[in-house]
Amino acid sequence: MDVRQIRYFIAVAQEGSISKAAKRLGMTQPPLSASMATLEKELGVRLLERTPRGIRPTAAGDHLFERGTRLVRDMQDLARELVGHGRGTVGALHLAVYMPFSWTYLPSYLRRFGSTSPGVEVTLYDPTPDDTLDGVDNGTYDLAIMATSDLPYVQQAYSGSMTIERVRSLAMVALVNDDFPYPDDPLPLDLLATDTWLLPEPTPRFPGVAEILDSQWESLQVIPPRLKVVKNLQTTLPLVSAGMGVTILPPEVLAMHTEGVIARRTDPLLDSLEVILVWNSKRQLSEVATRFVDVVRATAPRE
Q1: Which stretches make up the HTH lysR-type domain (predicted)?
Q2: Residue-number span of the structural domain to which 61 is assigned
């Protein structure tokens, strides 16, 4: 028994006539009759019986009709899904994202991606830079959107293992409590040298926010200020709001937290973060991931 025979049987059962079923299937009556006879012989059970009103399934035929209909429908669904996988419109995308980018810019990328790949389940992650690099390397993440303060270094350091494409720049500003005593705009950076700085732990493998400040203190010949290491943005902004420290971040973070926090330009201006799209160059990108890369390339601003 094969799927073709089941499809033939379903047509006969639905039409109640060999001739009508043959016409529906685009074939002549004799081959269809022979196929039904062969099916009954292979299974060793009678599936169809003639009645004054036409042909109808036997009890065994009813069972085959019910199960066979589900089987054919499942086969059709499977075929559509496999075609979707091949085209990148069905499947899964595991994406590690730098949070300030995801809060402001990522939704437009996802909307465009979702409009062409509605069957893809997207899962977002917020790992540390170290965990992001490891996850891209071992396949935990299909792609990563990261932000670095030293793009040339990152490109050189990972040229043999990862593909890196620049997406956009993110300006950096000082974030302070709204009761901050200095009204200067821009705010002289050396005025903040005695404050407690809330910063992520430096990542030697991937320069980021902390390295921006290191270069500024060096150029200003200022002794590095007190540093309090924070795990993530969710814990940083409430501390800034409470007046327990200051930090530097892209102003886009205020899209998620504005109460008690203000953004101030600095003098000198802080270096920008470069947002990059990263994937493992030693692994073949899935069709789903490839479609997302295409969306990013088409959506990213031309600077």
Answers
A1: 1-58
A2: 3-70
